[in-house]
Amino acid sequence: QVQLVESGGGLVQAGGSLRLSCAASGIVFSINTMGWYRQAPGKQRELVADITSGGNTNYASSVKGRFTISRDNAKNTVYLQMNSLKPEDTGVYYCNDRLGTRLSRWGQGTQVTVSS
To answer: Residue-wise pLDDT tens for the chain (116 aa)?
Structure first.
């Protein structure tokens, strides 16, 4: 059984920061590329950032320079540090591995709301 549990979301004012966590089980975490995705109301889910098993990172242009993805393989956890938050960052944030994305397998996500 695969379980991906996101946490750390909340309500924050523009310019503030949040750190999201994703605890994974049921996958071979250490060899998986892990990604953070978000879905704003009325919009499709989009990739925010991902990180390979070797630590190489990739970011959407909209968050580059503000967000940082990291992972702790010993804890089977991936993080997303979000700084300088903007109202357009509002949405439900999900983590997933590549296979889960292909299978349309998603957790419940964590809500991030950024007020102006």
So the answer is: 889 999 999 999 999 999 999 999 988 888 899 999 999 999 999 999 999 999 999 999 999 999 999 999 999 999 999 999 999 999 999 999 999 999 999 999 999 999 99
Which pair of structure tokens corresponds to residue 67?
């967000």
Three-state SS at 74: helix
Supply angle C-alpha 35, 113, 15, rounded to 5: 90
Token code pair at residue 53: 């098993």
d(CA 64, CA 32): 22
CB 28 within 8 A of CB 12: no
Q: Which residue has the tokens 């990604």?
A: 35
Question: Residue 51: what residue type?
Answer: I
CB 4 within 8 A of CB 95: yes
- H-helix or E-strand spanning residue 38: strand 34-39
